Amino acid sequence: MAGRSGHVDVVNERRLKPLYDNLDNGNYKMALQAADKLLKKHKDLHCAKVLKALALLRMGRRKESLAITEDVIEVKPTDEATLSALSICFREMQKPELIVEIYSSALKNQPQNEEFHTYLFMALVRIGNCKRQQQVAMALYKAFPKNPYYFWGVMSVVMQGLTSVDTKLASTMYFPLSEKMIERMVKENKLDAEAEVILYLMVLDYLGKHDKAIEILDGPLGKLMNSEIDGVLIRKAELFTKMEKCAEANNAYRSLLLKQPDNWFFYEQYFTSAFKLLDASWTPPEDEQEKSKLGEVDHTLDLVVSFIQEQIVTEEAKSKNSGDAGVDRSLRGPYLARLELIQQLTKRGAGEEARERIGSAQDHIRHYHSLFGAKFCCYSDLSRYTDLLGDEDGAIFTQSLVEDRLPLDEEEGLSIATSIKGLQRHLSTIQLSRRLGIQSTLSSAEKLDVAMEMAATHRQSLRFAAGNISADHQYADDYLLLAVHILLDVWEETGDDQHLWKMIMMLEMGITNSKNNSQMKLLLMRLYCVASVFGPIPDLFTSLDIKHIQQDTLGYNAASFVKSLGHFSSANSLYNSTLRFFTSNHKDTTEHIIAAYKFGSFHKIPEFLSFRKRVKHSLHFAQVTVEKMLLDLMLESENNSKTFEDIVQDMEIIPANDDTDWDDLRDNRDLKFFITWSPQERQLSDEDIEISSQQEKSWLRLRSLSLRSLAAAAHLSPQQVSNETQQAETNTMAASNNGESVDKSDILKRLLEDLTSHVGTIREDPHLDQKYCTQGPPKTNLSEYLAGKHDVILTAGLKMVLGSHEFSNLSSDDSSYEETQTMISQAMKDILSNLQESLRRSRRSLIIEKDGKKTFDRHILPETVQLVETFIFMILLSSVCFKMMKKVKQAAQKRGKKKKGAPPKPLPAVIDQFKSYMEEFHILLEGLHMAVMDTDMVFLALKLDHMQLTDGDHECFTEEEERAIWSKVEESYQESCKEMSDALKGKIEYFVSLKL
């Protein structure tokens, strides 16, 4: 029978092969046809049905696919091919719970199938059911007694502790239970793998049993720890540090440094333990046996200095014995450790003692530069110690470095290195001089000359790249970056945008020679965005090959600007690609966790959980989500038969429910990606980063409240959203009000109060107008948004909706009848007056002429884009009011017809006022559209000959190069104008149709 079953499997596999091939190649229609053809002959071939369902799913026919898989589940298949295909289907449907169902069912039919047990366990990992994981793992171990299965169960218990909301329960039940489970295996002498020992140590760490962990490492189980060099000693050193056994930790790290003298982490821990011993006046035990057991401990300053000096002597001896080749292979660690020791002593107020015992910091820095000045890492190594130079004149110190470097050739008045080593040594010297503030003392004109000299040196030094591929970093790239950084100083001092365009042109030329230099590309992106030119950004961003977590850490460099500069199509594309990463993160980390179980890498599982949580609560994720929804509201509402209310319904926005977990938000932006050689006082500080993070959260809250308020307004429209959405909203509000029903208008009132309160908090923020360096975090739109009174306009629009809704439910006899009309009238006046003022401000001339030179105002575009958004949101709110006013008018006319012979009762005054409001709003709307078109026409009328992007004093750029940049500027602005115009056209047509 077994042979016959195997024969059937082979035959079926041959029949199914065309389906698999077509699915793998993306030919889903052909796969569907092949499945239908096969099922005509073999109706009960369940695997073919599932593959048909998979083809339908990938064609976007989800409901049909789900119906087929449900039919197959009812049959309770047990063949591996069908179950595997179903698993793939359910993973792509994002229904992992159904994978658990099919393998649970299969196990009932084949309880001794080992593979089904393991597949069920992994399916439970997908849904995070740790309790059932434990049960399945122990049942699996009972049926098939293999160590990995047992430790799957142990790790499942640990996971229950890690995911438990009650930390006390984790420390008193889950972690002690997992410890006992492992101890049982130890007693039975069944612990035989390093992964199992690491899990044991991990559990003991959670319990704080560090003494016991050290005993294990010193015992026979420690011998299993052989995958990492000195792994046992490293773990013991870490445990001693946690236990604050400074003497033991010092001895451990001292021993590790003798074996690995270039490990900087070991040096840091060694110094930490040594200074703690110094502070505690620790002395070695008098008992010789204990002293011998403890080993050498550097508990005095003399011992610490002696140890570091010995490390350096050893390193110098190795270099001397190796000749010239040995110099290049010298380890930097011991030399940097000496500087670190001097710095630690200086911070402790023992600078003079450090000088006496170790020597002058200046001499050691010079010595380090003489050894490693030709390495790219020289500046980053020494930059943290430049403050040790004290009052010594920086220029004199820099000159001493110049004397140590390799000789330079004089070419065309420039100092050009004669070799790659000389070039790098020259660069490190200039970088250190900038760090020391030498260039800060120069005038703007002198800085400009230095920048141009650096740019010229870059061009001359490109000869060293001859025959080299366009690698990530060409040897001369830093000359150009230095030139741009110096120009940044000049630009920030003078405010002359011609320096901005010089930097852009320099970087454009730089990336033609170094196509993969990410520093140049990101800085060029930032400068283009500062110039309100987004057109070149998508290509630059794509060429950076941003992947996976970099979407979160670096994505802000594009996402923060794309919408505010009017490139709505690019914004939609960028937001979608970013959201795909975030939405797939849970699935991806689950696959990593499954792989960790399979290969016994249990210590990685908590890291994956932490990573998942960090990404889930990403500030960038929340921002992109809100901005994408606002963009859809702006572009899709009242477009292609989709009403404002339809869009809100499709988005499934529940205004009463704030989905953002504000307390857990994590700012994952990498704000220190940019290289900078500026003095310490001009570096981005931790305080700047914290202020930026808080402002980003304030901006997010403002945008989130705006989105929810707009959705709440849509819910008040007579053209109501679906019953399901209304019911969900009702349930949410009832839950938050102890089961009491809440009127929909109350939701909008609360949101309006929250919005007003939040804006008030923002206005009081002392850091509202905080400025950062260009390489720092992008500034939020908060100050510009408030300066343009967009918050005032939005709140007035929401008040108009609230008033209109209240008025539509009043009769003329109600006491608040006149008061409500007055409120609506005032809201309409506020909207019109503030929109008129904002429009007047944004219609200033795009072209600026100063000292006979023409350039353009880069601030107008973002102001206009924000105004377009606000106008469109006002159109949407006005449409809701229009439907309410229409309802009021029809009701009044109907009541008038019932009284025959009586003169018609006049309509409420607010109806005529609303008509006037709509007419005036339409005039302003046309004015905005004209302003957008005027910007486009200005570019069409301009001639490059009449425009000057740069001052022309330094002949660094050809006319063709300047023309190419201008062309990019022109195309970008025209694209922004086109997209704004397209967005307005549809809304104007819709607005005109609103006839009361």
The fold-level CATH name of the domain at 11-225 and 233-240 is: Serine Threonine Protein Phosphatase 5, Tetratricopeptide repeat
Overall CATH architecture of the domain at 11-225 and 233-240: Alpha Horseshoe
Q: Which quaternary structure do these chains form?
A: single chain
Q: What level of helicity do the residues show?
A: 55-70%
CATH domain class name of the domain at 11-225 and 233-240? Mainly Alpha
Question: Tally of extended strands?
Answer: 4
Low-confidence stretches: 1-8, 721-725, 732-736
Structure class: mainly alpha
**Coarse morphology:** globular
Kindly, what is the distance between the CA atoms of the first and last residues, rounded to a whole number of angstroms?
81 Å
Characterise the protein shown here:
By secondary structure, this protein is mostly helical. Among the domains are: 11-225 and 233-240, Serine Threonine Protein Phosphatase 5, Tetratricopeptide repeat (Alpha Horseshoe), CATH 1.25.40; 617-787, no CATH class; 805-897 and 905-996, Methane Monooxygenase Hydroxylase, Chain G, domain 1 (Up-down Bundle), CATH 1.20.58. It has a two-stranded antiparallel sheet with strand order 1-2. A two-stranded antiparallel ribbon has the order 3-4. Helix 36 (686-715) packs antiparallel against helix 38 (744-763) and helix 40 packs parallel to helix 42. The protein starts with a helix and ends with a helix. The model is unreliable at 1-8, 721-725 and 732-736 (pLDDT under 50).
